[in-house]
Design brief:
By secondary structure, the protein is α+β, with helices and mostly antiparallel strands. Helix content is 23%, strand content 26%.
Length: 152
């Protein structure tokens, strides 16, 4: 799996990433889940930030920020649990948004999602980690998602 494209690699390098970076994630993730390789490469990095973007505000990610001393101090939001069930996949949290108003999640197929912590909103960032990160770091619109029982 390609973790970065040439378009976003400079953002990661500015945050301290380098080719071959390999750190132990601070919480267990199955090596079979696509989040495992991402967290091994990026845990502890703060990539990107808030500000104006191409189509909307851009954001960034603080990878692995939910876990301290190996203890998960986050509860899975009900919407994330609902989407896991509907999509029949496992979601793994990659970290917080730069503004700390949300979390980024990767599913078992490598699709990137955003869970807003201020309002019950889940958005589809991209069909892959790289697509979603490019959208996020460049400030390109993502797609909001509705659960079958949500009217709007």
């Amino acid at each position: 799996m390609e973790l970065l494209t040439r378009a976003i690699e400079p953002d990661f390098e500015a945050a301290g990433w380098f080719t071959g970076r390999d750190v132990d994630p601070v919480y267990p993730v199955s090596p079979k889940h696509p989040a495992h390789a991402i967290l091994r490469a990026f845990t502890g990095l703060k990539v990107g930030g808030t500000g104006p973007g191409e189509e909307c505000a851009r954001d960034g990610v603080f990878f692995g920020s939910h876990w301290f001393d190996g203890i998960d101090k986050r509860q899975i939001e009900p919407e994330i649990s609902d989407w896991q069930g509907l999509l029949k996949t496992e979601f793994v949290c990659l970290g917080d948004s730069a503004d700390e108003h949300g979390e980024f999640w990767l599913d078992g197929k490598g699709r990137l999602f955003y869970n807003c912590l201020v309002a019950p909103i889940i958005t589809y960032q991209g069909a892959s980690f790289t697509e979603g990160m490019e959208r996020l770091l460049r400030g390109r619109k993502c797609r909001p998602m509705l659960l079958p029982w949500q009217p709007s």
